[in-house]
Structure formats: C-alpha cells, structure tokens
Amino acid sequence: MKKKMNYLLLLLTTIFFVGCTNVENTSTTDGESDSQEVTTVNPKEETNTTADDEPVVEETPTQPSNERFAGYKLIEVDGGDVSGYREPNVVVDIGYGDREYWAFTNEYGQLVRVIADEIIIQDDNNEPVLSSGRYYADEAKVPGVESDTLDEGHIIADSLGGVSNAYNITPQDSTLNRHGDQAYMEEVIRKAGGATHFEAIITYPNTETQIPSSYQYTYTLMGNEIVDKFDNVNPDEVNAGLGLTGSEPSDSTSSTTSSDVSSVDTDGDGQVTIKEAKAAGFRMPITSDHWLYPYMRDNDHDGMVGE
C-alpha cells in the first residue's frame, strides 16, 4: 500500500512538472512571436530615419562646362589653318595663346557671333609676332576673299590677339577693313589697352554666302559700353554718295589747321559738338589722341567724347 502511494505521488509530481514546462514553453513562444513582429517593423523605421538624416545623392545629367556653349559642339582648329571651311553649329577658341575668344557658327557654317570676356592686345615683346605684325603668314581662304575688293578680314585682329583661321575671318570690304570703321574700332581698343565684354554679331544677306552684309560690335572701354554698327561696304563710296566728302577722302586721324576746325565747327563758337562732328563724317567716340578732341567737351574726363 505504501509502495502504491509512492508511485501515485511520483506520477502526480511528473504531471505537475510537465504542465509547468508546457506553460513556460508557451509563454516563451508567445514572447518570441511578439519580439519577431517588433523586429520586422523596426528595420523599416531605422531605414526611414537614415534616409531623412542623410541626403540622397541623385545622378543628374552631365551639364556643359560653359552654358554659353549649349547647342554647339566645341572643336579645336589650328590658329594658322588657311582652309576656308567651317563646320556648322560649332564653337571654336580663336584667341592666340592663352586668350579665350569664342567664335560660333550657325547651321549653314556661317560665322555669326564672337565673344570675349576680355580683349588682350598683342604682346610684341613676348609673343612670336612676324615683321608684318601678324602671328601667321597668311589668313584663311573663306569663300569670297578671292575678290579684288574684299580682304581676309579678322573679326578680332592680330593686334588684339586673334588668330587667322576661318572662324575669325570673313570677306570684308578692303577700305572698310584697312581705313574704315573696322580699322577705327581696332585702333580705339588698342590705344585703350584692351576691352571687356566684347561681342561681335555678323549678319548675312542669305544662307548661301559667306560674305557678311553687316557687323555689330559691342564692347566696354573704361567703364563705357560702345556699340559700333556698320555695313560691309566701301565707306568712301557711301560718304561720297551722301555728299560728306570732297574729291579726296578725308583722313579723320590726320592733323589739321584752324580753318579745318572751322569747317567742322559750323556755328563758329570754337567748340565742336558731337552733332557737328557726326555731320562732318566723324565716328564716335572721339578719343584723347584724336585731333578733334581738344575742341570737344569731355564732361566725365575719361578720354572719350561721344561714347
């Protein structure tokens, strides 16, 4: 009987321990399930937090190094290349040495625009300048320069640091290039020691020719913006047609006598006005080295009248 009681107690004890173990396992399992559910959520929250705290690096399309070149292909052409061919829709550096003068062509291969942040004049002492005053012995043979009346005209002259390939050359009236508005503009910039914010716009009568019909130059000298506009024609013939010249073309840069001044000073007050100078055929501005300058009023004392 005693032995049976012992077996009964042992059986009850075993059942009790088995029951506790199941309860413990069930609680543990439930706890693990809860822990897994939280773990599933937390990584997402951590990921979101990281994304907010650290900026996301997005890839952007490559931009051109200079926005002014957008839509144009940048190419290199030797400064002394005498070929008259131009590629369409390109931009070329036409500055000699380290200068950056940019020339643009349109879809027809016409040279239509030239820009430069700064015009740096030729350095005769430190650059290989020929005895002719040029960097190269010849200029590009752009179609049209074979004419007896047209020069291989630089948009930016050698004296101002320009090269001689087709992206800086247009067929230009010989008189205009050597003695007219083009020559005068170049001389003004040279004597000023350079210019800034330079832009040339070249216009053509049609899309087939390489001979411009007109030019417009905008540049800044001594803080003053100057705009020069002129047609690609012989200025002597134009002036003669307007009755502004006599039998011989006048030389606006030569010395003169008081009688010559009186012919410009039409009201005889001893002071030449801008209006009187223009009526006599002189272009503005009149700089301090011009023979008319002493007879004119330079209100801001910058060495230029009529800028």
List keywords for this structure.
seven-stranded mixed sheet; two-stranded antiparallel sheet; alpha+beta; Extracellular Endonuclease, Chain A; globular
Q: Would you kindly provide a written description of the structure presented here, covering whatever features stand out?
A:
The chain is of the alpha+beta class and 307 residues long. The protein has three domains: 1-55; 70-238, Extracellular Endonuclease, subunit A (Extracellular Endonuclease, Chain A); 251-307, no CATH class. The chain is built from six helices and eleven strands.
How far apart are the first and last residues' alpha carbons, in Å?
135 Å
What's the overall average pLDDT, rounded? 80
Number of helices: 6
Question: In the residues, how many domains can be counted?
Answer: 3
The name of the CATH superfamily of the largest domain reads Extracellular Endonuclease, subunit A
Question: What's the short story on this structure?
Answer:
This protein is of the alpha+beta class and 307 residues long. It is built from six helices and eleven strands.
List the helices and strands and how they pair.
Blueprint: H1 2-53, E1 73-75, E2 90-93, E3 101-105, E4 111-119, E5 150-154, E6 169-173, H2 174-178, H3 181-191, E7 195-203, E8 214-221, E9 224-231, H4 235-241, H5 258-264, H6 274-279, E10 286-287, E11 304-305
Parallel strand pairs: 1-2
Antiparallel strand pairs: 2-3, 3-4, 4-7, 5-6, 7-8, 8-9, 10-11
